[in-house]
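tool=predict chain=A
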Amino acid sequence: MFERLAARVVELRLETPALLAIESARPLSLVAGQALVFFQPFLEALFPLPHLERFARLIERRENLELLARLIEDAADRRASSARASRPSGS
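tool=predict ok
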């Protein structure tokens, strides 16, 4: 689930705001998970309900937030590397 989320974040070029949100939510990871449950009616438009509930349970643990941040950074690095590789080299 985190790998798909990381890929989607990078695809939308939202890695910087996503990483900022993850880093700021890390000390309050339990509260962040509960906030997702609170905002569930609004978020259902973006995510199917079973995935949202699972995601809320996963982000309650700080080590999972670290994993998600690392996956986003890795996906962004891969995108940047492929962009550099596909760029024509000038003389």
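Residues 2-86 form one domain. The helical segments are 2-11, 15-25, 29-38, 40-43, 49-59, 62-86.
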